[in-house]
Specification:
The model has no long low-confidence stretch (mean pLDDT 93). The chain folds into three domains: 175 residues, Molybdenum Cofactor Biosythetic Enzyme, Chain A (3-Layer(aba) Sandwich); 79 residues, Alpha-Beta Plaits (2-Layer Sandwich); 155 residues, Alpha-Beta Complex (Maf protein). Helix 2 packs parallel to helix 7 and helix 11 runs parallel beside helix 16. It contains 16 helices and 17 strands. It is α/β, with parallel strands linked by helices and 426 residues long.
Amino acid sequence: MSSSVITASIMTIGDELLIGQTIDTNSAWMAQQLNAIGIWVKRRVAVGDERAEIWQALDEAIVSSDIILITGGLGPTADDITKPLLGDYFGGKMIVNEEVLEHVKYIFQHILKRPLLERNLKQAEVPDNCRVLINKNGTAPGMWFEKKDSSSEAKKIIISLPGVPHEMKGLMKTYIIPELTTLTNHQVIIHRTLLTAGAGESFIAEHIQAWENNLPERIKLAYLPNYGMVRLRLTGKGQQGSDIEKMVDHKFIELQQLVKEWLVIESDEPMEKALGDLLIQKNKTIATAESCTGGYLAHLLTSIPGSSAYYKGSVIAYDNKVKEEILQVRNNTLKEYGAVSSETVLEMLQGLLAKMGTDYGIAVSGIMGPAGGSEDKPTGTVWIAFGSAEKQRTISFHFRFDRQRNIQLTAVHGLLNLFKFIQSES
């Protein structure tokens, strides 16, 4: 490896990725792990189950990167072509690896308790010029190849991994990250991220343009807009023991001051995590009343480990009868103002807090689409109530996206507004 920044390419293989049947989560996780040890991911590419396409992608990756990580195509069926292709690419021949063979037999006989087919035994075949990485979570082994770049004589590392996420992660944690860490020449990549709300990407960019133009060459700023909010990420690259981390931290403090009017959180975490941390810090609890989101708020909150310490539950009041009978929303309120109104979500919230006995709550009601809107309340109209038994507030939005995105936006803005409400009480 050279003494400069070590770069990597991530290649995911499978037609299912290209047609959208399977969502690629592997490369995002792998990139995070590589960044954490100072390896910069230069390229991510998805390739179908086509020999010529995979071969060409390998040629291009080897020219541009020091390390190539490949996932997918290692199964026992005819469309899994990665292993024999890599054998040909590196000029090796296929052999049976006895350690892998015994591992495959053990899994089928003692774990799966299923008959061992001939095609399963072929999982033990590997190119004779690779280093085999035993996959303790599955039958397909990982394979580590090394190749000298003809133009520079630098060593290139090519690692092939199964596409099944928990198998890939097991191999990464057991073998690959520990070994790659020794090759990074103490290179570090520092990220600092904050979240803003209430101002668009263009407005913020204009507001901090002079500061951004004067950033040191080793520090870059990225704008990451999503859900009506904007994340700002500073990235610095340098050597361990250098001043790069101090430089990034100093500039991050400056950035926080520049955007303090819109600043929400000073870390790279989702709103449900930030709200959960705040509730734990204050030893408070929360419940949710959901109409249009149908439980999505509850899903976000409970996706955080340890959320049982502060999240008590949800009432999915999709039908108006549930709003009336469970949350005590008055029939006259629904008749006069409708289910999607400030008055209704306010009563939903008050009924929720009384029934659940929590410190805080969020209530939502809206028209997610594509149908159901009117001239007075078009599709995407949402009302959100949030607060405590002593004080509640309501806010409305007019989202313009498809049903799923409107649900996501409603939930995230419910979390965001309660977060800001609790902060304002401090």
